[in-house]
Design goal:
The protein has helices at about 25, 35-45, 50-60, 70-80, 145-155, 175-185, 195-210, 220-235, 240-250, 255-260, 265-280, 290-295, 300-315, 330-340, 345-350, 355-365, and strands at about 5-10, 20, 100-110, 120-130, 135-140, 165-170, 190. Helices cover about 50% and strands about 10% of the residues. Strand 6 (about 165-170), helix 6 (about 175-185) and strand 7 (about 190) form a beta-alpha-beta unit. The two termini are about 50 Å apart. The strands form 2 sheets. The protein has a 5-stranded mixed β-sheet, sandwiched between helices. The protein has a two-stranded antiparallel ribbon with strand order 1-2. It has 16 helices and 7 strands. With about 375 residues, it is of the alpha/beta class. Helix 4 packs across helix 14 and helix 5 packs across helix 6.
């Protein structure tokens, strides 16, 4: 198929004629202006690829994107080259710099895998860094063999250094605690109170049905009182006393006049699960009442909102899309950069003459 490729040819008056230069190599993004690459990547991070292609085809005079595949490939290139660049004017990282304390939340979400074998879904770790001034920095990466390196790059990009006082909140997942030990071994650990309260509530719900409709329904008052007392002790930082009471309660259910009552096995199973959960995260049990009084976070609700922003709204909910574990990272980087409002600064750092349309409009209005 014959194609016309425009080239720039040097003037004939020169003694040594240079080779013709293709027009596409003169453009920073392989024949595409940085402004178009920025617009395509930004909208691709906020809407499905097909919708972005239709939108650009309607707005741009020369057709901004042919189809959804074009939008996907452009967004991937931007994520691989630009999204992780530090914004223009940002200082280079200094490992010895003294920075204020931060709070880091970690959580995970699952994306549908493009290749159903060997896995139908794969996990993506999302997090958020809260600074004392109220600013937030989101990050996300697929859980692969280099998760520790990805996590380290994320916290360094958020301004966390070796001497930064750090508090890490998590829901008790062993993999998340492992990442914390590898990257931030000196951090203060806090187990999410919401997950603790939910496990206590499951045990209380089982106890309320213990012995119902029989002559032994009066037995439920003792385990309810013990569970509520254990929860109170844990809230005030008395984790050892809480675990001791729960252990005594499990032994009480082994008594002959209790173990044969209807629902005793269910209640005992919930209490044993609660004890195992608290034992596995014993180092992350703190004085929740004091932290609440000091207005310090005790829940991972802020990082669960980050999972909803980064993954659920665009890549899970109402989206019948499937992703590749090994190629999803550029798309995550683009979406995180858009949510953190750093994508424009990254483009300016790579292309000093880059100017988004809104800045040009503001300059014309001021003139």
């Amino acid at each position: 198929m014959p194609l016309r490729v425009r080239r720039f040819v040097s003037c004939q008056c020169r003694e040594i004629a240079e080779k013709p230069i293709c027009f596409s190599v003169l453009m920073p993004e392989g024949g595409m202006a940085p402004e178009l690459a920025y617009v395509t990547a930004k909208f691709a991070a906020l809407a499905p690829f097909a919708n972005v292609a239709d939108l650009l085809a309607e707005l741009l005079p020369v057709g901004g994107a042919v189809n959804a595949g074009t939008v996907r490939n452009r967004a991937r290139r931007v994520g691989a080259r630009i999204a992780r660049l530090r914004p223009e004017g940002a200082a280079d990282p200094d490992s010895d710099a003294v920075t204020p304390a931060v709070v880091i939340g970690l959580d995970g979400g699952y994306l549908r895998s493009r290749h159903r074998r060997p896995e139908r879904n794969f996990e993506v770790i999302a997090g958020k860094v809260l600074n004392l001034d109220g600013s937030q920095h989101r990050f996300a990466f697929a859980r692969n063999g280099n998760s520790a390196r990805e996590f380290a790059d994320a916290v360094v990009g958020a301004g966390v250094r070796l001497g930064t006082p750090t508090t890490v909140l998590s829901d008790g997942d062993a993999g998340l605690w492992k990442l914390q030990r590898q990257v931030l071994p000196q951090a203060t650990l806090v187990l999410d109170w919401f997950h603790i309260a939910m496990r206590f509530e499951h045990a209380l719900q089982a106890v309320r049905g213990f012995g119902a409709g029989t002559c032994n329904d009066y037995l439920r008052s003792h385990p309810i009182r013990e569970l509520e007392n254990s929860k109170w002790k844990l809230w005030h930082g008395l984790s050892s006393a809480c675990l001791g009471r729960l252990a005594h309660l499990t032994h009480w259910f082994d008594a002959a006049h209790v173990r044969d009552v209807r629902g005793a096995a269910t209640v005992q199973r919930h209490i044993n699960n609660l004890i195992e959960y608290l034992h596995a995260n014993e180092l992350a049990l703190v004085n929740y009442g004091r932290r609440r009084h000091d207005r310090q976070p005790i829940s991972t609700a802020f990082v669960e909102s980050a999972v909803n922003e980064i993954l659920s709204k665009r890549m899970i909910k109402k989206q019948q899309m499937r992703w590749n574990r090994w190629t999803v990272q550029p798309f995550l980087d683009v979406r995180v950069a858009v949510l953190n409002d750093t994508l424009v600064g990254s483009f300016k750092r790579l292309y000093p003459d880059f100017r988004p349309n809104n800045e040009n409009h503001a300059a014309r209005m001021s003139a």
